Amino acid sequence: MAETLICGRVLTFSGDPFAVPVTEAAHVDTQGAVLVRDGLIAAVGPAARLKADYPQAQVEDMGQALILPGFVDAHVHYPQTAIIASWGKRLIDWLNSYTFPEEMRFADPAYASEIAARYFDLITDAGTTSVCSFCTIHPESVEAFFAEALKRGQRVAGGKTCMDRNAPDGLRDDVQRAYDDSKALLEAWHGKGRITYAVTPRFSPTSTPEQLEAVGALWGEHPDCLMQTHLSEQTDEVAWVADLYPEARDYLDTYEARGLLGPGALFGHAIYLTDRERDRLREAGAAVVHCPTSNTFIGSGLFDMAGLKGSGQIVGLATDTGGGSSFSMLRTMAAAYEVGQLRGTPLHAAQLLWLATEGSAQAMRQSGVIGRLAEGAEADIIALDLASTPAIAQRSVRAGDIWEEVFPTIMMGDDRAVSGVWIAGRRVKG
Ligand code: GUN
Ligand code: ZN
């Protein structure tokens, strides 16, 4: 049985660094190792002991690199890969000007496959090993995404984006098609390889109440699937939802009233929340997903990480490609830090790394499966070079401790910092 021993400075968490002091929650073994067998993590411990216990294991010595779980990106739109960094619009104009015309192209399965392959290449280079993605209304876009993930052995979640109003011709389904197409895709793909289906109404403005009802019923029939959508990203959008759903108590209620709130629900953005919405999200065991590069790029606002995590809310971290301006979770952590600063609550490096791994895994209901280095977890692992450029190296060399050494890579690092990537134990970068 082939075994690999990945050696370096191994980062593990024994708790949530938002709930317990960082020094208690996070641990770095400066001469650590991770033993990988059959795609799973078989042991984590001191390199000397694991080398002695498993002399037959093939050693991959990553030197001083930080060894941590692959990044988990809990909210992306892979079909927006080619329109990332489109200039000058706010949410609704951005959707109409850039996003919807591009998503129209995914009716063509060849184009969908081309972009899916490009997307997975880009995120692999950036050290992201799992994502939860919106596709487009076209089943072909979902097939292309899952087929590529299956080929690469990656744990992903995704689903057909449902829209039956306020979207252009050619980019709308209807109530029955949303249900039927989603159900057929779910039955074909959910549980295949490492794939999870996510029931995916885009957001309340692009679905009629009847469509939300129908996909809510589908999720109720398959509660082990995820549900992903958007919530309270911009003030104009919140006002539009109030117009479209005059009976709703608030934005969340447009989902809640139709079976779209519960464990396994992921709500992207969640910036402008009322007290009732905060309470209901937490009580329901639903996740919110912070997308900081998107929130600054589209001009949406400042997510309340401290308040939400402080209340016990499940929070994931995400790029929101291509509303977000990067494929990299390093860049995303840097933006989360900056958003925290603008709110007067800067995040610690350990909290940022926890959000990009375990936090997002929790949001995807995959805690213990991905996002942590622990026995029995899937062996999606990365190595980070903490001196990957001269600018970073000259700063990290002055560090007094590991967190001060990691932080310049979080703030200034890019794909060059990702010196190794393993997916289910198989090395795919470096
Ligand atoms: N709200 C509805 N659709 C989208 C999208 O594609 N991106 C972002 N950022 N927000 C949305
Ligand atoms: Zn989104």
What does this structure look like?
The chain has two domains: 3-70 and 371-429, Urease, subunit C, domain 1, CATH 2.30.40.10; 71-363, TIM Barrel (Alpha-Beta Barrel), CATH 3.20.20.140. The chain is built from 16 helices and 16 strands. The chain has helices spanning 22-25, 47-53, 91-104, 109-125, 139-152, 175-189, 209-221, 235-244, 251-256, 275-284, 292-297, 305-310, 329-342, 349-363, 390-396, 402-412; strands at residues 3-13, 26-37, 40-46, 58-69, 71-77, 128-134, 156-159, 161-162, 195-201, 226-231, 265-269, 287-290, 314-317, 381-384, 418-423, 426-429. The strands form two sheets. Strands 5, 6, 7, 8, 9, 10, 11, 12 and 13 form a nine-stranded parallel sheet that branches. It has a seven-stranded mixed sheet with strand order 3-2-1-4-14-15-16. Helix 7 links the parallel strand 9 (195-201) and strand 10 (226-231). Helix 5 (139-152) runs parallel beside helix 6 (175-189) and helix 13 (329-342) crosses helix 16. Bound molecules: guanine and zinc ion. Guanine binds at residues 77, 91, 95, 99, 202-203, 230, 233, 294, 298, 320, 323. Residues 75, 77, 230, 268, 320, 323 line the site of zinc ion (ZN).
